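Narrative summary of target 7.
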Amino acid sequence: MSMTDPVADMLTRLRNANKARHERVDVPTSNLKVGIAKILKKEGYISNFRIFKDRRQKTLRLFLRYSDGQPIILGLKRISSPGCRVYCKKGTIPKIRSGLGTAVISTSKGIMTDVEAKQNNMGGEVICAIW
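Modeled conformation, tokenized:
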């Protein structure tokens, strides 16, 4: 079965596992998903991630974080989808929850957060928002 939006599938799996208080979630891997996982780890939303070889393909395993039984990730939203791409220039990078959240942006220099994109003076495709 083919998937039309693999990143939205990853975010949905992460959201559902977080809500069900699972300690980890497995998703099929891709370079974009690994880039998003690196940002999630760097920003402190997940404790770790690991890539391992499954029967047919590689799988990305994300280890979720909780604070006093409450999930660290309060919300995930896919902003740019395959049917409606959303781009921003360097001056119009969105603030998520007045700067308390993180926007994941795909630039020509790779996947980075909204803060890094502002520092590098770059725009790009706004992939998702995390808070």
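The mean pLDDT is 95.
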